[in-house]
Please model this.
Amino acid sequence: MVVGDISTGTELLVIGGGPGGYAAAIRGGQLGLDVTLVEADAYGGTCLNEGCIPSKALIHASSLVHDVEHAESMGIDAHADVDLQQLVGWKDGIVDRLTGGVEKLCTANGVNLIEGRAEFVNEHTARVAHGGEGQGSESVEFEHAIVATGSRPIEIPGFEFDDRRILTSSDALSLETLPESLCVVGGGYIGMELSTAFAKLGADVTVVEALDDILPSYDDDVTRVVRGRAEELGIEFRFGEPAQGWTEADDGARVTTETEDGETNTHTAERVLVAVGREPAADTCNVEAVGLEPNQDGVLETDDATQTAVEGVHAVGDVAGEPMLAHTAYREGHVAAEVVAGEPARLDQQAIPAAVFTDPEIGTVGLDAETAEAEGFDPVVGEMPMQSSGRALTLGSETGFVRIVADAEAGFVLGARIVAPNASELIAEVGLAIEMGARLGDIAGTIHTHPTLSEAVAEAAANAQGAALHTLNR
Ligand code: FAD
Ligand code: NAD
Model:
């Protein structure tokens, strides 16, 4: 201990207050553990401060603007003026409410909160440096530790983030003025969600993507719907063109890409959003001091009890690798705290859902037909096009489909792909079906409220049984 340090002891030290860390801390508190949560920046982590929540606020507001301005066919002729500064202020208000809530929930569950950067000193001690000069530091002796330090955006050579021309997603979510033109490098989750939002707000958007399509891990017929709609919104795609570098020009940043034929293309834009993936932040708390070594991808590897290679040290959330999603971080944090408390908890999910908040949204869970077959199932597939859904038509959003996959013999539901308005919500029903071992008949035979989008899930299940009413059976 250095002179001037104060020293405290805790049963469970949690490093990082994002979804993984705060879930672990609250669950630990509920189970009667003596928990200390250390956060270097802002409670709620990436998700609440500069990820899920701010991006969904911007996406909602931009859709509102777009819907208002494109309602002529409903007899509505309106124009929306956008004050981006006020919009960002509204978004910040939501963030403040939620992050304040996290702090209150931690305190109410008996969690000791420390603001500062934690670093391991040895197997049972960490030092927390409080923010700012002369703020001091303290030592925390711990029995168990959970590393929940999250991730950060990958910076590619030639595109150093400067919050002026070259933006991270966090920068893009806090712009004070709408850029006239935006070049988005990467057509993955962030690239597609934010390019859609900025196009709806009226920016001229070009997406340059190294691969031949958007959203690399999604099926072709799913991405086709989203890409088609994005093109309708005026987004220009340049596929097979990895970004190489940029130079300052009179009219903005001139981004250079290399085509598949080895030629050079340029795309000029006022701002450039680089969204080429995120990397685990395993290097912020000196994990080596507890005997941990991140793998070659920078990930802290764990087992199904979230336990790392070092007894008593757990890792959860983005720092523990893919999928880097808030809902997996929550579950891992929950399990980690229960394991520390001596409960027989394990990560034993049958399926993890994912959603992309594009227009329309994508929701996926479980297996597609191809993977089901590869895993030894004899899959049966049922589909319901959204153009046959009365509710979708009343929402003016009829592109997309619900596809459900089940085991032909027993009818057990194995997975779904949904491209539709609110697909992020609709996918939950199929996730529950998989977890409960439900069969097609359980979904098809459940009375769904009319008129709702969820009827399309029931119709897809009925279609797999050859009994759908609102679409032709296969
Ligand atoms: P984080 O949320 O990154 O939190 C880690 C915390 O640890 C941070 O607050 C950091 O300050 C702190 N920390 C780091 N080192 C230290 C240290 N040494 N001492 C103390 N504190 C430290 N996921 C979804 O599921 N749905 C979405 O819609 C979605 N949208 C997203 C949109 C964007 C633009 C981005 C960037 C991400 C999005 N994600 C989404 C991903 C989601 O935000 C992450 O998966 C999630 O935040 C991971 O949680 P975590 O607790 O592992 O890490
Ligand atoms: P991503 O991995 O989803 O997509 C990155 C894209 O960039 C890929 O398509 C890749 O081919 C492309 N790329 C890489 N290098 C390139 C280059 N030099 N030039 C052009 N294209 C290039 O990454 P992301 O969009 O940054 O998102 C990061 C992570 O954040 C996601 O993987 C996800 O875990 C999380 N996230 C989730 C959600 C959600 O759940 N709705 C939303 C946003 C972010």
Observations:
- The chain has 13 helices and 22 strands.
- The pocket of flavin-adenine dinucleotide (ligand 1) is lined by residues 15-21, 38-42, 45-47, 51-52, 55, 117-118, 148-151, 169, 190, 281, 284-285, 317-319, 324-327, 329, 357 (CB under 6 Å).
